[in-house]
Known about the structure:
Elements lengths: L6 E6 L4 H10 L4 E4 L5 H4 L4 H12 L4 E5 L9 H14 L4 E4 L2 H10 L4 E4 L12 H10 L3 E4 L5 H6 L3 E6 L1 E3 L2 E2 L4 H6 L9 H4 L2 E4 L6 E5 L2 E2 L2 E3 L4 E2 L4 E6 L2 H10 L1 E2 L3
Amino acid sequence: RQRKMGITYVGLDIYSDKTINDIIENKLCDGVILGDLFCENRMFQYGNNDLIKYFEEISKTDLDIIYQTPYYLTSRNDRQIYNNLRYLYNLKSESVILVSDVGFAAKIKQEFPEFKVAWSHMHRGRVDDKNDFTYSFLKQLGVDYVETADVCKVEAIEANKLGVWMVFGKIKYKTFGRKCYLQDQLGETLPNCRKLCINSLYTLREKESNYSMTVDGYILGKTLDYTNNTFGTNDTVCIYAYSYKDLVKRMGEIKHEEI
């Protein structure tokens, strides 16, 4: 007998009307992760407008909505993020909010008590979680779930009565920043953004060697790691992929533990 996954959430680098419809129609998952870590224009054709539209479309189904909030919460984007949260709360208050900032996690629970909060696996760029005290602290803040690709951390997470979300397609990178690298390189300002980070593949290449690094907007050297592909019957698994086609491929690579 084989163990099958419990809950499956999916997150794509780029969404369109077609991919949202395909996800809904083909019943591939239990929930959809929406929201770019740095810039909604990277993920959606019409930026934040599409984010709201897809909130509405998915709320009409039995799929869960997981809103991935930006990695940096600043005066530049805080009003838009809070507007998104207020709208989603009125639309579907049982949604889950993915965060990477401890202060923001606590604030969400204070202002939107019915939301569930998940600690993003991208938190590692800001807060290390190598000991039990981190998970105890997150629990006190009101965090409900922790995303991780590291099975060695599951015991400590569960010991603090936090739900575990296993990650298939962990984001790996060389570095990232608050400003878009392509805008700096090409002299583009945000209003004139031509979505070069998603419409073309840009690479920094060292002249004297074979070393190269992709430029994905705010992230340098981004890849998705699919090393750990075995999950069990009660696991909640977040599958990250570049596109819908890639998602279907990656779902086929997942193995199930025998019991």
